[in-house]
Amino acid sequence: MSDLLFSITIPVYNNEKTIEKTINSCLKQKGDIPYEILILDDASTDSVPKILSRYQENPKIRVITLEQRISLMENHNACLQHALGDYVIFCHADDTLEEHAIETLYYQLKKRRFPQKYIVWGHTIFKDFAEKAIYEAGFNYNEIVVGEFAPLMFLYGGLQPTGTCYSRASLIEYGSFLPVDHNSSPSDMTTMIYLAMQGFRFEMIDEMILNREQATTSIQNAGTEDLYLRDLDDAFAYFIPTLSPESIDKLIYMSGKQKTKPFYFYHAILQDSRYKGAVKAVILHTLLKKPWLLRSKLIHKILKRIYL
Question: Which of 78, 98, 131, 152 is the most exposed place for a label (fewest CB within 10 A)?
Fold first, then answer.
């Protein structure tokens, strides 16, 4: 373990209205736990470079400025490569860390004996992952999730990098975040499923870590569902080749035993015709028990992919 335990990494592009608030929240962390703040400016064209220049004398802050833009996930992966800490906590440039975030994560890591292949996060204001991990997937707070059931947690949606703490070397060793073609595609979903299938441990702690009230991330709703399905297809097109067909078939089978079925996952995986049979078995069994689901437009789209 290095002397620097944490890197708070801030990927930024044209966030002139929020970046100062983000940086200041990272500087105001309680306790005397060693950490750095790494800001990776993705060739911003607004006043972000001027704002960042005000922090150049602060020894806790490092700024890396790119000359040409890269994708959002490439930015996150670049943050991982340039960070110096054993653990990386992302804080997007329109979010703010709670003042006890580092301290809270430190004591959780200490409790777990500073593990590798480990990802931990807490509550957020706006887009709290508890809705997916706890209420849909059926897992519990403050318990490590690992093994064959761990991927199920992420079939319901992505774990936002912002506010999440990763063992940096482990994430880099397994390829960092999976590539996508669209910035809005959920690599945070497919990457976590992949890492879970490589033996990573995951834990959601029942503590507030992040405030996302000013986040510019679009909220999924009925009006954007087709776009969301496109982005899922994009992410899963890169995910599917990373695993054997047998592994994916098993994942579909196990998901069928969940009380709440991950229908968006089924739609995305069906872009590969090899999985029609496995998904068909789950969907037909579900419809026999809950025929009212036939009213769902998403179910109709899944059935179209199965039978066409």
Answer: 131
